[in-house]
Amino acid sequence: MRDGKRSDDADDADDDVEEEYVVVDLPLELKALPGDTLKFEGLDTETPKLRTVDGARYVGRYEVTVGEHLVVGFDDDETAEARVVAKTERRLKFKPA
Asked: Rounded to whole angstroms, what are the CA distances from 22 to 14, 37, 77, 83?
């Protein structure tokens, strides 16, 4: 893992999968709940777009953060132990379009 990316080891170099993680900041007026569907468009552009299930549209911009954000995963609900899944220095901030 480096710079928000993780490469999965595979037997064949053609099977390498690269994942990139980014922290997404949503506007306060967007009341997203777990399980809601958010549609992202143009994530590889300077101004990605976000559309909610109710049709609201947002435009974003990437920022480089000071320090790193860690993405952690918890193996079970009974312990407070977590493993680092990825790290990133990128943040994607959205505002109403």
From this structure: 25, 17, 25, 18
The residue type at 88: T
pLDDT in tens, 55-87: 889 999 999 888 888 888 887 777 778 889 889
- DSSP conformational letter for 13: G
Distance between CA atoms of residues 72 and 94, nearest Å: 23
Domains, the chain = 22-96 (2.60.40.4370)
Q: Is the dihedral of CA 71, 76, 80, 81 positive or negative?
A: negative
Phi first, then psi, for residue 15 (nearest 5°) are -90, 5
Using an 8 Å Cβ cutoff, are 96 and 57 in contact? yes
Q: Distance (Å, rounded) from C-alpha 73 to C-alpha 21?
A: 13
**pTM exceeds 0.70 for this model:** no
